[in-house]
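Example for tutorial group B:
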């Protein structure tokens, strides 16, 4: 048997040490060894790649990627480099000048911890530079957003608007919304933003996949959004077009569990390139947004301990349902309070129905 491709003159890392060449046949490593050992597997049709001393590593796996969100963010304002509210305002102003009146300005990546002012931006900051275009800017963690007055107006969010379940609208001393929305409160705005169509979503995923492959990723666990059906459809189209360049393990939100069960989908459905594996639950927020659920108050905000998205009893029943359905539970828990109730929920599920479960905690930051 001759190799389809051979890599020679390289520095190849393996679990048992280093080698200088490898041979591949039908997407599988046929042999790793010296140049001389691999030369015996090179035939007239073998594609030979001279690495010229370059390094070859095993493919990397990222177990938590918001693939569609990342792909869409590549076309939005990138605010990761902003170091002050003034810089953020400048970026928004420049974007507003390029758009028609009423078009949405979307962005992500700001972090008040890095701002010179050491405070959250507000609706009034954004109003100064974009009074006619609605603005929606997610914090770097994705659990908080700041919006301007135009966006609040479109969503009919006023002083009288109550906090939604599992969300919070920040307010000033008079009760007026400041423009900061936490967790599920972001959905009040998000549902007003025109969503990308299937073609736009597909191309966003294609962009994200290309970026992932460039960084050495060969497998990702895709933490899907509430547009999971469209994400799944778009990925299947990319696969059909030959543009699914890495393996994808899908982790849809809990809201889709019943639908998956109804149509007979079980964990592992799919093929090596695209399969459904886990079910995601969001149990708290983020440390930077002060929404991660802690046992003790935040040092710089002693009035806050974060928030649990679901009560301990609700979480137990949700994890048990995932467990009984045969899926892997993937539970976002950052604060120690959230981690504790998550461990209790996993223990509860295993006690009711012992099995090889592989349930997991996403992030587990404060342990």
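The residue assignment follows.
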């Amino acid at each position: 048997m001759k190799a389809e491709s051979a890599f020679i003159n390289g520095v190849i890392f393996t679990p048992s040490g280093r080698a200088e060449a490898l041979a591949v046949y039908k997407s599988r490593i046929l042999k790793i060894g010296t140049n001389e050992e691999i030369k015996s597997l090179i035939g007239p049709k073998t594609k030979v790649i001279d690495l010229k001393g370059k390094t070859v590593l095993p493919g990397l796996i990222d177990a938590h990627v918001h693939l569609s969100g990342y792909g869409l963010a590549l076309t939005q304002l990138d605010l990761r480099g902003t170091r002050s509210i003034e810089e953020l305002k400048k970026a928004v102003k420049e974007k507003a000048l390029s758009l028609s009146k009423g078009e949405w300005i979307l962005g992500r990546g700001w972090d008040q911890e890095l701002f010179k002012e050491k405070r959250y931006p507000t609706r009034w900051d954004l109003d100064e530079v974009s009074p006619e275009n609605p603005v929606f800017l997610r914090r770097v963690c994705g659990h908080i957003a700041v919006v301007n007055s135009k966006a609040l107006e479109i969503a009919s969010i006023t002083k009288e608007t109550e906090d939604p379940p599992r969300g919070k609208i920040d307010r000033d001393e008079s009760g007026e919304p400041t423009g900061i929305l936490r967790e599920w409160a972001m959905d009040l705005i998000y549902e007003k933003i025109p969503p990308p169509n299937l073609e736009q979503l597909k191309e966003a995923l294609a962009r994200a996949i290309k970026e992932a492959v460039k960084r050495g990723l060969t497998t990702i666990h895709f933490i899907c959004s509430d547009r999971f059906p469209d994400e799944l459809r778009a990925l299947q189209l990319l696969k059909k077009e030959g543009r699914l360049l890495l393996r994808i393990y899908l982790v849809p939100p809990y809201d889709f569990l019943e639908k998956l069960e109804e149509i007979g989908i079980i964990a592992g459905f799919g093929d090596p390139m695209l399969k459904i594996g886990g079910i995601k639950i969001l149990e708290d927020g983020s440390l930077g947004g002060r929404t991660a659920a802690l046992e003790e108050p935040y040092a710089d905000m002693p009035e806050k301990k974060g928030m649990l998205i679901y009560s301990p009893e609700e979480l137990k029943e949700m994890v048990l349902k995932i467990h009984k359905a045969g899926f892997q539970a993937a539970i976002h828990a950052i604060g120690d309070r959230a981690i504790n109730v998550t461990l209790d929920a996993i223990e509860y599920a295993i006690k009711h129905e012992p099995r090889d479960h592989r349930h997991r905690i996403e992030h587990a930051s404060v342990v």
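Residues 5-58 form a domain with the Urease, subunit C; domain 1 fold (CATH 2.30.40.10). Compare this with the pattern of hydrophobic and polar residues in the output above.
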